[in-house]
Amino acid sequence: MTFIKKKSKSLYIFAGFVIISISINYLMKKNKKREIDLSVMKEPYKLTLTMTGIDYKADGETIDEALSKLNLDWQQIKAKGVVKITRDKNTLEHLFYLGQLKRIFVNKLTRQMWAKRLQLFLKEKETASSIGNSI
Q1: pLDDT band for position 6 (50/70/90)?
Q2: How much is the average pLDDT of 19-26?
Q3: Confidence class of residue 128 from pLDDT cuts 50, 70 and 90?
Q4: Domain locations along the chain
Q5: φ, ψ for residue 92, nearest 5 deg
Q6: How many Å apart are CA 42 and CA 30, to the nearest integer?
Q7: SS3 string of the chain?
């Protein structure tokens, strides 16, 4: 009797593994590499960090890449700073306090989170400006 229970549990585990592997294979086939049209590509993000009167500049295809190219260590950050992001004609400025800036350059996950937030802020500003221009 106990042997049947163990066997049924292993069957359930095996069935779950098969379902997971089938779904992963389906997603991999669905997300095949697509060719990129170079005429549609936008300019890279231009990022400027102004801190204690010194400007640190970097470019990148993503905001996270530009932040990582600044080559600042968390120990070099001594004051709050303003991050200015430019892409095409849209610009965004955001004030970061000392603790926030240090966390961005210490922890990669925090940097990715703030990069995503800044990208969403910039996209929202783009849509707001396009709506304002059409009215």
Answers
A1: very low
A2: 58
A3: confident
A4: 1-32, 45-134
A5: -140, 135
A6: 26
A7: CHHHHHHHHHHHHHHHHHHHHHHHHHHHHHCCCCCCCCCCCCCCEEEEEEECCEEEEEEECCHHHHHHCCCCCHHHCCCCEEEEEEECCEEEEEEECHHHHHHHHHCHHHHHHHHHHHHHHHHHHHHHHHHHHHC
Per the model's pLDDT, the better-predicted residue between 74 and 95 turns out to be 95
Calculate Rg over the CA atoms of the chain: 23
Instruction: Fill in the amino acid letter for 3.
Output: F
Tokens of 10: 């292993």
pLDDT at position 43: 84
